[in-house]
Design goal:
It comes from Gossypium raimondii (Peruvian cotton). InterPro entries: 4Fe4S_Fe-S-bd, 4Fe4S_Fe_S_CS, NADH_quinone_OxRdtase_chainI. The protein has 74 residues and is mainly alpha-helical. It has one domain. 41% of the residues lie in helices and 0% in strands.
Length: 74
C-alpha cells in the first residue's frame, strides 16, 4: 500500500503525478479536466475546503464520466 502525505491543499507544489489519486482508499481524490495553471496571484493556488467543494461541484459530471470510462478500461 502506498502512503502519500499531503502538505495541505496547495496546488502550487502538485506535479500531477497521480500518486495521491492512486493511494486514496475511498476515491476522494480524482484528477479531472480542470487544470487551471494560470493564476494572477499565488493565493489562487491555495485551496481550502470551501474552494475544493465548489471545484468538485463545478466538474462533478465530467469527473464521474472519466471515472466510469477508467473503470471500463481496467
Amino acid at each position: 500500500m502506498e502512503v502519500v502525505e499531503l502538505q495541505g491543499s496547495t496546488l502550487q507544489v502538485c506535479i500531477y503525478c497521480g500518486l495521491c489519486q492512486e493511494a486514496c482508499p475511498v476515491d476522494a481524490i480524482v484528477e479531472g479536466p480542470n487544470f487551471e495553471f494560470a493564476t494572477e496571484t499565488r493565493e489562487e493556488l491555495l485551496y481550502d475546503k470551501e474552494k475544493l467543494l465548489e471545484n468538485g461541484d463545478r466538474w462533478e459530471t465530467e469527473i464521474a464520466e472519466n471515472l466510469r470510462s477508467e473503470s471500463l478500461n481496467c
